[in-house]
TrEMBL record:
Name this polypeptide is given: Peptide ABC transporter
InterPro entries attached to this UniProt entry: BPD_transp_1_N, MetI-like, MetI-like_sf
Positions of the ABC transmembrane type-1 domain: 98-307
Transmembrane residue ranges: 9-30, 104-125, 137-161, 181-203, 238-265, 285-310
Main location: membrane
Length: 317
C-alpha cells in the first residue's frame, strides 16, 4: 500500500509541476502589456517612461527563463507573488476565499451522495418498475436544467415569493453558525441537483451490473437475504465508479462554480478568478488556476488511494 501511494504521489507532484509550467507559459503568451494596461486611463495612452518604470518594478523586463525560475522558486516557498492592481499578497486572498469554495463544493458533494446513492440502489432493485421510471425521469430533468437557471428559480421562489430563506450572501460560521448554514444550503443544493442526478444514474447502472455477477448469484442461491447481498456484495463493488464520477465532478466544480457564486453572492474563489481575468491581473490568474489544478490533482490522488482500499487489486495494477 505504501509503495502504491508513493508511486501515485510522485506522479501527482509531476503533474502539478507540469501544470504550473504550462500556466506560466500560456499567461506570458497572451497578447498585451500588463504594465501598459494598468496605467491606461480612459483609453489614453500612458507615458512610455512610466510604463517602462512599472515593467522594471514588476520584473517584466527580465528574460522569460529568469521570470520562470523566480516564479517556481516562489511557489516552493508558498509565495504566489503580488497582485498587479494593489500589490497585495495573492496567497492571502486565495487563503481567504478558497475555504469558502471548498465548503460550497464539499457540501454539494455530500448532499448529492446522501440522495443519489440510496435512490440509485432503490431504482436498480426495482428496475423497470414505476419507481425506477419516475426516478430516472427526474434525474434526466435535473441534468437538463442549467445551474444558473435553477439557482435563479430558487432565489425567486424560496427567497422572493415564499421568503423562506435569504436571497444570498455570506456570514462567517464563527459569527452566526445558523445563518451561515442557511446561506450555504441554497447554493450547495443548487449544485447538488445536477451532481446528484449523475450519482444516481451511475449508481443505478453499477448496481445492475454487479447484480449480474456470479458471486452475487451464488449468494442468492445460498439463501442470503437481499439486504445482506446489497450490504456485503453489491455496495462495495458498485461504489467504485461512483467515487470516480464524484471526484471528477468535484474537481471541475472547483473552477466551475462561477455562476452559482454570482447568483447567490457567495464570495469564493471563482468570483475572484473572474475579477482577475477582467482586470488582466496575470499573477492572480496564475495563482488561482494553479491552486484549482493542484486541488484537482489532489482529488485524483485521494481517489486512487480510496480505490486501493475498496479494491486491493488496484495496488498491483
Amino acid at each position: 500500500m505504501l509503495a502504491f501511494a508513493a508511486r501515485r504521489l510522485i506522479v501527482s507532484v509531476g503533474l502539478v509541476w507540469a501544470v504550473a509550467s504550462l500556466v506560466f507559459l500560456v499567461i506570458h503568451l497572451i497578447p498585451g502589456d500588463p504594465a501598459e494596461l494598468l496605467l491606461s486611463q480612459g483609453g489614453i495612452a500612458p507615458d512610455p517612461a512610466a510604463v517602462e518604470e512599472l515593467r522594471d518594478r514588476l520584473g517584466l523586463n527580465l528574460p522569460l527563463w529568469t521570470q520562470y525560475l523566480d516564479y517556481m522558486g516562489g511557489l516552493l516557498r508558498g509565495d504566489f507573488g503580488l497582485a498587479l492592481q494593489d500589490e497585495h499578497p495573492i496567497v492571502d486572498e486565495i487563503a481567504l476565499r478558497l475555504p469558502r469554495t471548498l465548503e460550497l463544493v464539499g457540501a454539494a458533494g455530500l448532499i448529492a451522495l446522501v440522495f443519489g446513492v440510496p435512490l440509485g440502489v432503490a431504482a436498480a432493485l426495482r428496475a423497470g418498475g414505476m419507481l425506477d421510471r419516475l426516478l430516472t425521469a427526474g434525474a434526466g430533468l435535473a441534468l437538463s436544467v442549467p445551474v444558473f437557471v435553477l439557482g435563479t428559480l430558487t432565489v425567486l421562489v424560496l427567497a422572493q415569493h415564499l421568503r423562506l430563506v435569504p436571497a444570498g450572501g455570506y456570514v462567517p460560521f464563527a459569527r452566526d453558525p445558523g445563518r451561515h448554514i442557511l446561506l450555504l444550503l441554497m447554493p450547495a443544493g443548487t449544485i447538488a441537483v445536477g451532481l446528484g442526478a449523475v450519482v444516481f444514474r451511475v449508481m443505478r447502472a453499477s448496481v445492475l451490473e454487479v447484480l449480474e455477477r456470479d458471486h452475487v448469484r451464488a449468494a442468492q442461491a445460498r439463501g442470503v437475504s437481499p439486504a445482506g447481498i446489497i450490504r456485503r456484495h453489491v455496495l462495495r463493488n458498485a461504489l467504485t465508479p461512483v467515487v470516480t464520477v464524484v471526484a471528477l465532478h468535484l474537481g471541475s466544480l472547483l473552477g466551475g462554480t462561477v455562476l452559482v457564486e454570482f447568483v447567490f453572492n457567495w464570495p469564493g474563489l471563482s468570483g475572484y478568478l473572474v475579477r482577475s481575468v477582467e482586470s488582466r491581473d496575470y499573477p492572480e490568474v496564475m495563482g488561482i488556476v494553479l491552486v484549482i489544478s493542484a486541488l484537482f490533482v489532489l482529488l485524483n490522488f485521494l481517489v486512487d488511494l480510496l480505490y486501493a482500499v475498496i479494491d486491493p487489486r488496484v495496488r498491483h495494477g
